[in-house]
Amino acid sequence: MNTKITLFIIISLILVIPSASAQEINIGEKAVQKSVEVVINDDNEIHVKHIVSSSNSPKQMKLIDGIIENLTITDEEGKEQLLTVIGDNYAVMVFPSSDNSIIEYDLKDVLLLKNNVWTLDFLYLETTTFIIPEKLDLIFVNDRPVYFDDKKGFSCHGCQMILEYSIDEPKILKNIKFENNEFLIEVRTFAEIDKFNFDQSTKNISFHVNGENQLVTILIPVELASESYNVFIGDEKIKLHNYVNNGTHVWLNIRPDSSGDVSIVNIANIANEKPIIQTDIPETSVSDVNQDIVVYVLLGVIVIVGLVVMMIIMRKKKSLRTSVIEDNNI
């Protein structure tokens, strides 16, 4: 009887709490979550699933921020349980149960498309597993690229992140002949790419990109790739993600903020030029030093000759004076 009265009071309190203040009030202890799963399908729709541990007392479980639709709570056998929402879909009450509780819902208007990139600004301070669309093999988490092969999921701990990805990007294939072999360089982007060139002697890549803030992903066969690159649009150096070598290809990614001529320059070429420049400098210095020594020697010779001439003149004058004195004595 006491349990029923307590349950009635809790439900009554929830029903009368205004939405604006509900997020500031905790009713019951925080629920212990065994897992949180966020599934993004090929249509860029998000479905969320929480599994909450069984408990002998009511618990409160916060929902992920966003527009909540199709919210349900069931036990492990799929039997629906009492659904009580706190505030404007801020949280739900999980009532006492001997089984784990499963809370599921669709999350709307949080995955946004901008510049052909789907972006999710996510904050939920529980360990969360993300399942991404099957067709994706590349995403960005806080601007860092993450490459996927067969696995299509990852976990985020104490999760605060910006998730980004492009889907169904156009692919441009460039046939490259190198050392009597043929290779394909693949470029993925929604931007327009032309004037593509691969320099066989330097392994530098250049092209013109037409489009602002568009992701450009380049897959280079390892035979054509270098260990590291610098990237320029015009004369301005821009950020490069040189992040994956899967044994067959190196993946490079850039996001130019404007249209222009892009140069992907092999850093080794720049490094190889430096010793030449450095060796020129010492040679010039030695030449300058030699010239200085010659000047000093010439000056020294001139000074010495001058002193000798002065000594000869002084001796002649002295001998003349001596002769005059002797004549006077006679």
Please give the order of strands in the largest beta sheet. 5-8-3-2-11-14
Task: Using the 3D structure, state the CATH architecture of the largest domain.
Answer: Sandwich
SSE succession: HHEEEEEEEEEEEEEEEEEEEEEEEEEH
Q: How many discrete structural domains?
A: 2
Helix content: 10-25%
Explain what the structure shows.
By secondary structure, the protein is an alpha+beta fold. It has 2 domains: 140 residues, Sandwich (Immunoglobulin-like); 100 residues. The strands form 5 sheets. A 6-stranded mixed sheet has the order 5-8-3-2-11-14, with no helix packed on it. The protein has a 5-stranded antiparallel sheet with strand order 9-10-15-12-13, with no helix packed on it. A hairpin with a 2-residue loop joins strand 16 and strand 17. It is elongated, with a radius of gyration of 40 Å. The relative contact order is 0.08. The N terminus and C terminus are likely disordered.
Record the SSE blueprint.
Elements: H1 2-16, H2 19-22, E1 29-30, E2 33-40, E3 46-52, E4 59-62, E5 67-75, E6 84-86, E7 91-94, E8 101-108, E9 111-114, E10 117-124, E11 128-131, E12 138-141, E13 144-147, E14 153-156, E15 159-165, E16 171-178, E17 181-189, E18 192-198, E19 205-210, E20 216-221, E21 229-233, E22 236-238, E23 241-245, E24 249-254, E25 260-266, H3 267-329
Parallel strand pairs: 1-4, 2-11
Antiparallel strand pairs: 2-3, 3-8, 4-7, 5-8, 6-7, 9-10, 10-15, 11-14, 12-13, 12-15, 16-17, 17-20, 18-19, 19-25, 20-24, 21-22, 21-25, 23-24
